[in-house]
Amino acid sequence: MVRLIEDQPDAFTYRAFGRRIFFTGLLVAVTYVAAGTIVLQESEAIMRQTGMDSEGIVGQITGAMVFVMIVFAPLALSMFLLIRLIRRAFGQLEVERGLPLTMLTLSRLAFMAAITVAFAPMGLAIDAPVTAINFYQERFMTWFFTLVGIGLALVLLAPVRQLQLRTGRLLWVPALAGAFAAGYLVWMAHSPAWDISVFQLSQENLDAVKEFRTSFTFTMLTCAAAIMTWSWTISRNARSILVRQKAHFFTQLGR
C-alpha cells in the first residue's frame, strides 16, 4: 500500500473529488427540477401572494423580483456552491493555474451577471418603474437564461478538462452531457416559446403561457438529467484512477 500511495499520491484525493461532484450535482439537479415544478404548478399562487397581479406599478415590480428570487435566481445561486466545491477540490489537488481554473473564474462572472440581471430593476423601481416593468416583459428571460447557460457550460466543463489532463483520456460522456445541458438552456432562452413576459405567467388561459410552462418544465427536467449524467460520469472517472492504480499494484505484487 505504501507503493500504491507513492506511485499515485493524488488518487485518493480524486476519489473524494468525484464523490463531492456527484452529491453537489445531485443538489443542483434537484434545484432545476424544483424550478420546473414550481413554474408548472405554483406560478399563479406565488404571483398572487407576492402582489405581482396587483394594479400598482410598485407592487408589480416588487412581486416580480420576489417571484424571480424564488423561482429563477436559485438556478444561478446553486451553481456558486458547485464552483466553490470544485475550486476547493482543485486546491487539494494543488491546481493553481491553467484552463480549468480560468473556466471557473469566468463561470462565476457569468452567474454574477445573471444575478445582476435578475435584480437590476430594483434600482429602477422608484425612478423609472415603467422601464423596470418593460425589462421584465421583454428582455429578462433571454438575458438571464443565456448568462446562466454560459456559466453552466464553463463550470461543468472545468472538471472534465482537469480529469482529461490527469488521465490523458477524452471524456466524451461528461463533456457532451455538460455541453448539452448548457446549450439546450441557451437555445430555449432564444426560442419563441420563452419569448414571454414574467407578468403573464399567472394567466393560465393564455396558450403562450401553457406552452411556456410545459417547455420550461421539460427543459429543467432535461437539464437535470444531463447534470446527473455529468456528475455520475465525473465521479466514476475520478474513482477509476484509484481503481486502476490498485489493479496495477496487485498485478505488480503478483509478479
Descriptive account of the structure:
The structure is a single chain. This protein is mainly α. 80% of the residues lie in helices and 0% in strands. The chain has one domain. The chain has helices at 2-7, 11-41, 43-50, 57-71, 73-92, 99-119, 129-138, 140-167, 172-189, 207-254. The chain crosses the membrane at residues 21-41, 61-86, 98-120, 140-158, 170-189, 215-234. Keywords: Membrane, Transmembrane, Transmembrane helix.
Give the structure's gist in a few sentences:
Keywords: Membrane, Transmembrane, Transmembrane helix. The protein contains 10 helices and no strands.
Task: From the structure above, extract its key features.
255 residues
Topology:
Layout: H1 2-7, H2 11-41, H3 43-50, H4 57-71, H5 73-92, H6 99-119, H7 129-138, H8 140-167, H9 172-189, H10 207-254
Keywords: Membrane, Transmembrane, Transmembrane helix
Transmembrane segments: 21-41, 61-86, 98-120, 140-158, 170-189, 215-234
Structural class, from secondary structure content?
Answer: mainly alpha
> What Rg do the Cα atoms give?
22 Å
Described by its quaternary structure, the protein is single chain
> Would you identify the regions where 5 or more consecutive residues have pLDDT less than 50?
1-7
How large a portion of the residues is in β-strands, by DSSP E? under 5%
**DSSP strand count:** 0
Total number of domains: 1
Major sheet, described briefly? none
In DSSP terms (H or I, runs of 4 or more residues), the helix count works out at 10
Helix content: over 70%
**Termini gap:** 16 Å
- The average pLDDT score comes to 78
Following the backbone from N to C, one meets helices and strands in this order, namely HHHHHHHHHH
Shape: elongated
